[in-house]
Design brief:
InterPro entries: DUF1272 (IPR010696). This is DUF1272 domain-containing protein. By secondary structure, the chain is an alpha+beta fold. The chain has a domain of 58 residues. It contains 3 helices and 3 strands, in the order ββαβαα. Strand 1 and strand 2 form a beta hairpin.
Amino acid sequence: MLEMRPGCECCDTDLPAGSVDAFICSFECTFCRACAARMQGRCPNCGGVLLQRPSRQGAALDRHPASTQRVHRPEHCAHNPAGVL
């Protein structure tokens, strides 16, 4: 089950569970639409492809709430915007 992290790892923009602006890699690194575009659709942590995160709403969100733990690593995004560190 997706962790549904609450914010962009680069700019710390809020990304609630229902957001259509959240993008993730296969490790669930999470980025906003603007940062994902700036990184040319590649995760700066693993080099994987960033895809739009599925949303979780209603009863499913009630039963399986999104994570509240924020991951904010702007240094990964600033120094290596399109590749692996």
